[in-house]
Amino acid sequence: MFDFKSSPVFAKDFLWGGATAANQLEGAWNQDGKGPSIADALPGGKQRFAIASQPDFAWQIDEDKYHYPNHRGIEHYQRFKEDIKLFAEMGFKCYRFSIAWSRIFPQGDETTPNEAGLKFYDQLIDECLKYKIQPVITISHYELPLNLAKKYGGWKNRQLITFYERFAKVVLERYYQKVHYWMTFNEINSAFHFPVMSQGLVPSSGSQDFTNVVQAWHNQFVASALAVKIGHQLNPDLQIGCMILYATSYAYDADPKNQLANLQQMQDFNFFCADVQVRGEYPSSTARMLHDHQVNPQDLEITTEDLQLLKENPVDYIGFSYYMSTVTDVTHQDATKSAGNLIGGVSNPFLQTSDWGWQIDPTGLRIALNQLYDRYQKPLFVVENGLGAIDQLTADGKVHDDYRIDYLRQHIRAMAGAVTDGVDLMGYTPWGCIDLVSASTGQMSKRYGFIYVNLDDQGNGDLQRIRKDSFYWYQKVIQSNGSEI
Questions:
Q1: Quick one: 15-274+316-479 is in which CATH superfamily?
Q2: Widest Cα–Cα separation across the chain
Q3: Which of 251-260, 334-343, 371-380 has the weakest average pLDDT?
Q4: Mean per-residue pLDDT of the chain
């Protein structure tokens, strides 16, 4: 086994930190000129995706019928200084967060930004820099202005390219001298399974027609390339990455049918969006994918100018989330399905699962890092990874989360293994470094953080911030640059 204590693995400038998203922790959903986002229209609870997938769901906010935890978040909008100070106490080198689009352009289609929203991020960025924490900003993280989903039909509409370009230009010009690391879209490939979050598509606006999903992707690819172009014109040294949801995938067995199906699953889900943004062109497997999903290429609006823009403006690095692996099986009708996995698949008998049924696979992260680096030869950044679990606050105000420490320890070991394999790894920002509202379920009880926030699913609690055992553990990990885990 590798001796971590005697052999430093991670680079001296390795970016240890944590990650959040505006719509899950800021709250203040309608304050200081902010408009509603699609996240503000998604109700809390385990059925949020099922509700959003109903044929008649049309992005209505009905507070008499549903509870919306996002509207309050954890009141980070008011308490960000307290939270950043806690991140600094852990020793964060960076902090990944997003800028809420509808805080800058409340309806999304305005020509003049909301100065109050920009001033909030002025303060947030300056607070990070005060503690020598480098901001890592996601420009769009499941926070499409609601108006762009309702009035324009989401990202299937090319007009959104213009709106995003305007938004990206405003924030890049405002912050490029202070912020070195950027990402254009969060988990852009997630639309393969749930286009509601990243593309703003629901059944009433065509989410069930894969042609719309592919068109929306293309429009996002163009928008991403425009953001890269703007950023590099401001400063060629800016690091602007893509961000994908990566799930290592295994064939169920050695049956060639399952091996082929698994290869295609990897091509379509893990690589398609990254290929376009990293390589600057559509992969050779695109034609097969479109055929499999009954998409006529003639129905897609893709111009020669678009393709040239993609070719000239690839991203600088690959950010990705890693929570689970999946198993592909097309030959066994009786195979047990893995209901907890967001992206489906069958159960893997060699793995344990989280409280929410997600299959825990640290080795899969090492495989993912090798697969991505072998394919693209560009720096990698693990910008999400973590364990959603039910934490218990003890009578004396402690949270003993050894299960989270064990999960993260195993994944850090996997990262170290990948670095020894030759992978160029930039950093690690575990998800939900402070408890926040879960994106998949809209729950507070699904906790990821190193910091406990005293708030329950019904909105009860005083929002006190409490350091968990994992807080002190991660502090030592960062202090030792990953040699003491």
A1: Glycosidases (3.20.20.80)
A2: 64
A3: 334-343
A4: 95
In this model, does residue 6 exceed pLDDT 50? Answer: no
Radius of gyration of the chain (CA): 21
Residue 182 β-bridge partners? 137, 240
- CB–CB of 353/341 below 8 Å? no
Length of the chain: 485
Where are the strands (E) in 104-206, listed by range? 134-140, 181-185
Cα gap 208→374, rounded to integer Å: 34
Could you give the C-alpha distances from 203 to 41, 92, 271, in angstroms and in order?
15, 41, 26
Alpha carbons 68 and 443: distance in angstroms, whole number: 10
Q: What is the pLDDT of residues 180-239, one digit of tens each?
A: 999 999 999 999 999 999 999 999 999 999 999 999 999 999 999 999 999 999 999 999
* The pLDDT of residue 4 is above 50: no
Q: Report yes or no: 450 and 429 within 8 Å, Cβ to Cβ.
A: no
Q: Which residues are catalytic?
A: 187, 384
Q: Count of CB atoms within 10 A of residue 406's CB?
A: 14
Q: Distance between CA 137 and CA 134 in Å, rounded?
A: 10
Least confident span in 3-7, 289-293, 338-342: 3-7
Q: Which of 303, 293, 299 is nearest to 269 (CA)?
A: 293
How close are the terminal C-alpha atoms of the chain, in Å?
14
**C-alpha span between 228 and 222 (Å, rounded):** 10
Q: What DSSP line would sit under 337-358, residue for residue?
A: B-TT-TT--B--TT-EE-TT-P
Pairing of strands 451-453, 239-245: unpaired
Q: Quote the tokens at residue 436.
A: 């926040």
Q: What's the average model confidence in pLDDT over 87-99?
A: 98
Count of alpha carbons within 13 angstroms of residue 450, beta-carbon side = 28
pTM of the model: 0.96
pLDDT at 2 over 80: no
Q: At what angle do helices 402-420 and 469-479 cross, to 10 degrees?
A: 20
The pLDDT-based confidence of 339 (bands split at 50, 70, 90) is low
DSSP strand E in 59-213: where?
94-98, 134-140, 181-185
Give the C-alpha separation, 82 to 433, whole Å. 14
Q: What is the distance between the alpha carbons of residues 272 and 285, in angstroms, rounded to a whole number?
A: 8
Helix ranges restricted to H, 133-158: 146-150
Burial class of residue 291 in the structure, from the number of CB atoms within 10 Å of its CB (0-12 exposed, 13-18 middle, 19+ buried): exposed
Residue 113: HSE in the Cβ half-sphere, 13 Å Cα cutoff: 23
DSSP state of 332: -
Q: Which two tokens stand for residue 201?
A: 């598509």
The two tokens of residue 149 are 């989903």
